[in-house]
Amino acid sequence: MEKKKIKIWLQYPRKFPDSPYYKYLVESPPQEVKYLNAEIQKGVVIDKRKGFMSNSLKQQIRDIIGFFRLPIPNLHFTRTKKNYDLIHCAHCISGNKFPWVADFESSWQIFASGRTTFLGQKIIEKLLKNKYCKKIIAWTESTKKEFLKIFPNLEGKIGVIYPAVPMQKNRRKKGKNILLLFVGRYFYAKGGHHVLKIMDDLTQKYSNVKGIMVSEIPEDIKKKYSRNKKIEFASLMPQKDLFDKIYSKADIFLYPGYSDTFGFSILEAMSFGIPVITADGFARKELIENGKTGFVAEAEEKRDWERDYLKIKEEGKIIKSMTASTEKLIINKRLRKKMSKNCIEIIKNGKFSIKERNKKLRKVYEEALKQEITK
What we know:
By secondary structure, the chain is of the alpha/beta class. It has 2 domains: 6-164 and 353-370, 3-Layer(aba) Sandwich (Rossmann fold), CATH 3.40.50; 178-348, Rossmann fold (3-Layer(aba) Sandwich). It has helices at 20-27, 48-67, 118-129, 141-150, 192-205, 219-225, 239-246, 264-271, 284-287, 305-308, 317-331, 333-348, 354-374, and strands spanning 6-11, 33-35, 72-73, 75-76, 86-90, 93-94, 100-104, 111-113, 133-138, 158-160, 178-183, 209-214, 231-234, 252-254, 276-279, 294-297.
């Protein structure tokens, strides 16, 4: 049976979303779904000056309103006059009296301020109970659990659809050396300082191991490790260059991702068939199947990763565990190959596949419109 065409307006909280989620969404939409404003998608900011200004401004605004704990929802309005069937909010809430769905990486995105205040939570709950809100799409089961802890009465509206990335045609090129890779825009928050220590140790221990660090690395850190000529430093670059020149050569992806509530670079690495070594954190064990698509290093204790990552010592349990797991893959070529195949399978046909995401998302859109028709 022919599917009904659905026209969607993507409601962004800013001029464009700084997340690969929407890039992959508009490039590979569900069947017979058209995103009317797909052309405004710009991708992830890599310009250092723009990135710094954007993040600095956002942090200043958060600090000001956060200081007063004002109960402000992340609420936005669609003012376009284009003919669309449904609004899809990109980690924000719609103020329009029109049917909408929204996706969220984490519950903090639903608040501009006042996340922990009673009034702030009640304002958000009222907006989500509104008849125009058809579905809340959680990126992970951890996100859903987090939402229901705050809004236990909204279980019927919240469902999980994992983000997806496309399979890469230009997959890993075989080489004599084993290449360790780290990619992260925020050097410390993503754990780059610890990965460098791991790379330094293992490149000196094994003659066939090299490393590449892609990040904005502080000059004093570069200087500290400059003696090791087997580690290459690269600045942030356009995604095409990153995929063609860097990911396609890597064998093992090292990514603690301390501040992440998701971590798209993990999925992107797996789309190249690269096993991932990471640290336990929010939803991390949903992304990486420990021992199958990579290894997840356990923490010494539960901690607030976003604030405490600078306190993790180089000799700590996480770093030792990540080093041991990386070494295991360096030594065991058969295990690397097996994990590589598992990574490809989960991106091609599993929960992070485009077809799985599109099937579930199309169903959400159809049900949202059906609800509207029957009212």
